[in-house]
Amino acid sequence: MEQQYNEDEISLRELIEALLRQKKLIAIITIASVLLAGIYSFVILESTYESRMMLMAANVNPQNTEMAVDGDVDKLLDAMTNIPTMNVESYRQQITTPEVLRKTIEELDLGEIYTIGSLARKIQLETVKETQLITIKVEDTDPEMAAAIVNSVGENFIKYVTESTKSRANASSQYVANQMEIEKSNYEDALLEQKELLSQPRSSQEVSMEMEAILTQLTEFKTDKNSLEVRKEALNASIQVSSNTPGNGSSLTLNQNTGRVILDSSETTLRMELAEVESELDSMDRMIPELEKTVEELRVEYQDKYHRESIITQRVDRAKGIYESFLKKYEELRVTESAQIGEASVVVVSRAYAPVNPVGPRKALNMAIGLVLGLMIGVFAAFFIEYWKQSEVDSKKGLS
User: Fold this and answer.
1) Sheet holding 49-57, edge to edge
2) Is 378 exposed, middle or buried (0-12, 13-18, 19+ CB in 10 A)?
3) Is the dihedral of CA 250, 254, 257, 262 positive or negative?
4) CA distances for 331 relative to 170, 173, 180, angstroms
5) Rounded Cα distance, 388 and 382, in Å
6) Contact between residue 157 and residue 61 where contact means Cβ atoms under 8 Å apart
7) Which of 101, 66, 59 is nearest to 80 (CA)?
8) Can you give the pLDDT at residue 117?
9) Residues contacting 53, CB < 8 A, separation 6+
10) Between the CA atoms of 217, 222, 225 and 229, what dihedral angle is there, to the nearest 10 degrees?
11) CA–CA separation, 397 and 400 (whole Å)
12) CA-to-CA dists, residue 369 to 258, 361, 364, 376, 380, angstroms
């Protein structure tokens, strides 16, 4: 154990001695590496400038409705013409779309410098967590160019959002406009059918009024019949009493029609009145069934007319509601087409300006890296040289 410790101690000492013997080489290589890093950072590399633009996005959805599954026309139209909700990530993914970058390249005449792919790789996008902020960053050796690229990309992106929204709204409005004409024609056909039905004689309302009048008359007849039946029973009883009463003599009766006074017996008068009551009862017995039959016929006619009128009225109301829904949605889409949705949903918080201080190259970092690399190369070179010399000595000893 002690022997291995001594061997390790001797090996470590030899390593340190080797480094000390080659300290000049290590210093020269390290200094050379630092000088090369300095020349590369201060002379060869150009200064780069970073320009940034900050946008604030809003979750925009003009229709903002639930999908319709219950047949509601308004909800169905909203679902069919819905503009998708845009969140921060959706906007971030669209900033470097080919349409936006192509317009930027054309606007700044960068065709000879950048392609769409190379410009997309040059643009850096950042989002701040739990905010609606998006930062567009570009690094370039020309500070003015960096600011111009950032501003152009941001402005073209806002235009792109507006144009995309208008395009979707235009396509939806075309569909709604075409369907609206169809629904308008259906509404007009329903109105014409309703007009033809109402122009026919005896509408359901007229039949109802006639039936109510006959029912009132029928009720009066039945009431009078009950009164006459009571009167008939009273007259029969009076006649019975009169015929059984002895000494029932004649009486003087004033005729209301002629004004003459006639001589008649009480029983005869009662029997004449009874005959009149029975005649009225017979007449009512004939009229009441006829009126009841008429009421039943009117009730059937009323149900038929009311059913047809209800169907056409429902059709008219439904056609009117659908047409008005399409008309309302068409107006909403026309407003969406004319509105600057992009400018409303994406706001420029701060524009990009030409930076004064460069962000690169990081000269101190490069020189520190040069220092570390120089030390590593110097140490490796020192060990290699010492190893080579020791191998040569061992080889000569072996030969001797």
Assistant:
1) 123-127, 133-140, 49-57, 346-350
2) buried
3) positive
4) 12, 9, 11
5) 10
6) no
7) 66
8) 92
9) 135, 136, 150, 151, 153, 154, 348, 350, 351, 352
10) -170
11) 5
12) 147, 13, 9, 11, 16
**Residue 360, token pair as written in the block:** 């690169």
Q: pLDDT tens-digit profile of 294-346?
A: 989 989 988 988 898 899 999 999 988 888 888 888 887 777 666 555 556 78
Give 193's contacts (C-beta < 8 A, 6+ positions apart). 312, 315
Closest to 96 (Cα-Cα) out of 125, 133, 61: 125
Residue 81 has phi, psi (to 5 degrees) of -110, 20
Query: Can you name the residues that pair with 173 across neighbouring β-strands?
Result: none
Q: Is the pTM of this model over 0.90?
A: no
Backbone angles phi, psi at 64, to 5 degrees: 35, 60
Distance in angstroms (rounded) separating the CA atoms of residues 53 and 148: 10
Phi and psi dihedrals of 262, rounded to 5? -120, 155
Contacts of 349 (CB under 8 A, 6+ apart): 54, 55, 56, 133
Per residue in 49-107, pLDDT tens?
899 999 988 754 444 434 333 345 566 556 555 555 567 888 888 899 999 999 999 99
Please provide residue 293's backbone torsions phi and psi, each rounded to the nearest 5 degrees. Answer: -65, -40
Euclidean distance between the first and final Cα of the chain, in Å?
33
